[in-house]
Design brief:
The protein has 251 residues and is α/β, with parallel strands linked by helices. It has one domain: Alpha-Beta Barrel (TIM Barrel). Helix content is 43%, strand content 16%. It has 12 helices and 8 strands. An 8-stranded parallel beta barrel has the order 1-2-3-4-5-6-7-8, surrounded by 6 helices. Helix 11 links the parallel strand 7 and strand 8. Helix 1 packs parallel to helix 2 and helix 7 packs across helix 9. The longest helix is centred in the C-terminal third of the chain and has 18 residues. The chain binds 1,3-dihydroxyacetonephosphate. 1,3-dihydroxyacetonephosphate binds next to strand 8.
Length: 251
């Protein structure tokens, strides 16, 4: 069966002190949770601090981005081996904010997934349409291209290490969540694509998260959908109470 994964994407937030405070509380509050996998994704500079708090915890650590080369003359970048060294087990790749502000393309996403897999990091690969694309009935085409190009060339064994996050851009940070039906429709579509690209068994094994204004109030209805296997949470993952409520709501 697919594992439910709730991941908090902290984006560009939390100093070392704030991060340590938050994960110290989360570690205690979420101690007994075994039903879902829990991941927090801090900024790279605080990964090791967070790791030091979360040793012997059920909360895993993810990074928010990586470069595809391991090392060398690439000023300002961070690589999979360095993220592993700092305690990461997951890495978000191709978030819409990276596509929008930092020129990420399906091609670079594909290279980054490859680098993550080589070093044993589980990629959380983001796809999603913007408002204009949704309103002009292009959402399915956009998501199909993102999935086919970003996920091109991976074996079934590699695919099984990948999580896909469907994040409609119009729902990110807007308070406007996709309805459970709207989200389910796209999740089902993505799973269908995975059947075409691989087979049913592979498609059935892949965790597909929803992201975009996930809150304690809507997690239960979203997670109740057949093809929604977790959430990638932005704003609500920065507060102890709301993240704990989302995780417990998904159990
Ligand atoms: P919000 O939950 O703040 O809408 O952000 C979603 C997101 O982008 C998670 O990656």
């Amino acid at each position: 069966m697919r594992k439910t994964v709730i991941a908090g994407n902290w984006k560009l937030n939390n100093t070392s002190k704030e991060a340590i405070e938050l994960v110290t509380l989360l570690k205690r509050d979420l101690l007994d949770i075994t039903e879902v996998d829990i991941v927090v994704c801090p900024v790279s500079t605080v990964l090791a601090d967070v790791r030091d708090v979360l040793t012997e915890s059920n909360i895993k650590i993810g990074a928010q981005n990586l470069f595809w080369e391991d090392k060398g003359a690439f000023t300002g970048e961070i690589s999979a081996p360095l993220l592993k060294d700092a305690g990461a087990e997951y890495v978000i790749i191709g978030h819409s904010e990276r596509r929008q502000y930092f020129g990420e393309t399906n091609e670079t996403v594909n290279k980054k997934i490859k680098a993550a897999l080589v070093h044993g990091l589980s990629p959380i690969v983001c796809v999603g349409e913007n408002l204009e694309q949704r309103e002009t009935d292009k959402a399915f085409d956009v998501i199909e291209t993102q999935c086919r190009e970003s996920l091109a060339g991976f074996t079934a064994a590699e695919m099984k290490k990948i999580i896909i996050a469907y994040e409609p851009i119009w729902a990110i940070g807007t308070g406007k969540t996709a309805s459970p039906d709207q989200a389910q429709e796209i999740h089902q579509f993505i799973r269908g694509l995975l059947v075409e690209m691989h087979d049913q068994e592979l498609a059935d094994s892949i965790t597909i998260q929803y992201g975009g204004s996930v809150k304690p109030e809507n997690i239960k209805d979203l997670i109740a959908q057949k093809d929604i296997d977790g959430a990638l949470v932005g704003g609500a993952s920065l507060k102890r109470d709301s993240f704990v409520a989302i995780v417990t709501g998904a159990c």
